[in-house]
Design a protein that fits this description.
259 residues, alpha/beta, 9 helices, 8 strands, globular
């Protein structure tokens, strides 16, 4: 995915296409590459924006879900986006939830996939071991139903993070913040149309998490994808993009849904 990374003030992001903004928030070990198929599919009908979240750039005190949500809010205000479709995967979904709860006015819809905010296994009982490539390869593969989705490029990215002491400290800080920041009592306040796309084989935020989101968010609809793990937009991009396109089309042409 060779798109221009723009830098305006402290914000780094890609922005492709024209139309209503579709903002994509990546997860804890996420990167722009997580969304390559999604960007390519939707850039012809939406303005697709992927901000690079400052996972390792904030001071430790602000390296939290709330700190990232503040960054996203400042970014949206600085760019003056409106009628936003806000999509988040994993930690990015958690950040999206916090943003919508605090600043719903510019948001048109919310899309969550493998989101934290209610429950997550995260790293299980252990955090990544520095210097142990095979361990990190196995842990990265657990993100997916098909372990081959964890390409060498992806494993190398995670390995680089896990061998940087400061980055590991910040990863742990964010992971602990996500566990502490449980939104169960607030989520029912969200009144935006919400799409939940979940892997039926997600072991990090298992299917019961998706059902709980569906129960708590009044205007939500839930789709499960079989043989799919924690990052459906990477593992089954064709099916993911079709579900998302149908959802966005209904919002664009609401009369078409009336029988």
């Amino acid at each position: 995915m060779n798109y221009e990374i723009k830098q305006i003030d402290k914000f780094r992001f890609i922005e492709e296409g024209e139309g209503e903004p579709l903002i994509l928030l990546h997860g804890l070990f996420g990167a722009l590459s997580n969304f390559k198929d999604l960007v390519e599919h939707f850039r012809n009908s939406y303005k697709v924006i992927v901000p690079i979240l400052p996972l390792f750039d904030l001071d430790l005190f602000h390296t939290t879900v709330g700190g990232l949500a503040k960054h996203v809010n400042k970014f949206i205000d600085a760019r003056d986006y409106n009628n936003i479709h806000l999509l988040g995967n994993s930690l990015g979904g958690h950040v999206a939830l916090v943003h919508v709860l605090k600043h719903p006015e510019r948001i048109k819809s919310l899309i969550l996939t493998g989101s934290s905010g209610l429950f997550e296994n995260g790293m299980g009982d252990t955090y990544p071991k520095r210097g142990d490539y095979e361990y990190i390869k196995r842990k990265t593969a657990l993100t997916f139903y098909d372990p081959n989705t964890a390409t060498k490029e992806l494993v190398d990215e995670v390995y680089e993070i896990c061998n940087n002491r400061i980055k590991v400290i910040k990863i742990i800080s964010l992971a602990k913040s996500a566990i502490r920041n449980n939104l169960g009592e607030e989520i029912s306040q969200i009144n935006k149309p919400t799409l939940l796309i979940w892997g039926n084989n997600d072991t990090i935020t298992p299917p019961f998490v998706a059902r709980e989101f569906n129960k708590l968010i009044p205007k939500s609809e839930l789709f499960f994808i079989d043989e799919c793990g924690h990052a459906p937009m990477m593992e089954v991009p064709g099916e993911f993009n079709k579900i998302l396109a149908d959802f966005l089309s209904k919002l664009k042409h609401p009369a078409a849904t009336i029988a």
